[in-house]
Amino acid sequence: MPEDAGATLYRVRTPMAVGFDHPAQRRTRADSLLLRLDAGGTSGLGECAPRAYVTGETTASVTEALQDVPMDAVLRRLRTDDPAALLAALLDRGFAETFGVRGGNNLLCLLETAVLDLLGRRLGLGGEGLVPRDGAPAARPAELPVSQVLDLGLGVEEFLDTRGPFHFVKVKASRDIRRDVRTVTAIRARLGDRVPVLVDANMSWTPEEAPGHLTALRDHGTDYVEEPLAKGSWADLARLRAHGGPRLMLDESVCTPGDLMTAVASKACDLVNIRVAKNGGPVTAGKMIDLARRGGLAFQVGVQVAEVGPLITAGRALAFAHADAVTVEAGQSDRFFPEMVVSPRPAVDRAANTVSPPPGPGFGLEPNAHAAPWAVLCHRAGDPAGWRAAAPGGPDGHHGAEPQDRRPASRTKEHA
């Protein structure tokens, strides 16, 4: 195999200029993995953003699992297989089945986004050509309106004064339902009835208190409530939905196609939040959108807080391919990160709060000099040692300030 075939793993923990608070997590820095694959003169960049409270995965566990992936076999297929045929197989069967790799959703997402990006670049395809479109409407808009999120670190008046125009508002719930009711009341007083409002409880309510919370929020203008109970509380969710009030959206409870089918069978929700990393990559996420439609559920295309690269544009590719979403989240990378580890910076038109399709080819992003210091592991095809610790400054020789918590210990097969 040529010497240019290989892989580089980055653990990006860039501090956030503005924190983000909700009942399940306070986040003040990114925690994503980027994977660059090089094969046959083409590169591809993938990303995952593991969150333990969502899928049980962490950046450490995904890093460990990646070192058990037969990377030489993956790189060999990227060099030798017909790229159009390989892409068709991926869109039909997903990464796990196509490459015979098993693992958690974020591991599969990391690998799948990197491989799709590489194939898109080789074939000259943009992001919409790299996601399944089963059941999607024919219309492909030039831009999509995106929702605005009010987290617990921002006051409602400041939010209303600075974050418009508003197409859809998502409120991160507090531990005090009275505060949440006041927040929704203030939003309705300013925006009237024209903008949908969702309150995201992030699994923080008990089954006993939830009906009262739902009624209070309904009476003050809430249209949707997201993930009100503990993850996977199917029977309690069905009873809560039957109680009446805002429509229920599930997020953390629906990580796999099996979860989605359980949600449909249990009549536990009205819509689901589809997120690329949570759901195992763009292919499974796209297939789950079609499953939701066929099960009578609506859907949102959401994001992980503090995505740093390909997850942003992969999510947007998914949203443009399936433009019948109730709403689309664009993330806040422009607010969180004054400097990004990829170029070009994924843009949001803040004057209109809309996004455009990703530029392509592939998912349209390259790691830049800010990424290099976050490199943690390198693999060169045919190296019997497997993964090795990245050289200081990254594989491309860029030397910058050493980030904190920069490098997990490398692990070779001999030391497994």
Q: Can you give a write-up of this model?
A:
With 416 residues, the chain is an alpha/beta fold. The chain folds into 2 domains: 6-126 and 366-415, Enolase-like, domain 1; 144-355, Alpha-Beta Barrel (TIM Barrel). Helix content is 33%, strand content 19%. Strand 11, helix 10 (257-266) and strand 12 form a beta-alpha-beta unit. Helix 10 runs parallel beside helix 11. The chain starts with 5 loop residues before the first strand and ends in a 27-residue tail after the last strand. The model is unreliable at 395-416 (pLDDT under 50). Residues 396-416 have a biased composition (Basic and acidic residues). Keywords: Metal-binding. Residues 384-393 have a biased composition (Low complexity).
CATH architecture of the largest domain: Alpha-Beta Barrel
Q: Report the radius of gyration as a whole number of Å.
A: 21 Å
Q: What name does CATH use for the topology of the largest domain?
A: TIM Barrel
User: What is the CA–CA distance across the termini?
Assistant: 25 Å
**Number of E-state strands:** 18
Q: Which spans of ≥5 residues are poorly predicted at pLDDT below 50?
A: 395-416
CATH class descriptor of the largest domain: Alpha Beta
What is the beta-strand fraction? Answer: 15-25%
InterPro entries: Enolase-like_C_sf, Enolase-like_N, Enolase_C-like, Mandel_Rmase/mucon_lact_enz_CS, Mandelate_racemase_C
Protein name: Dipeptide epimerase
Pfam families: MR_MLE_C
Biased composition (Low complexity): 384-393
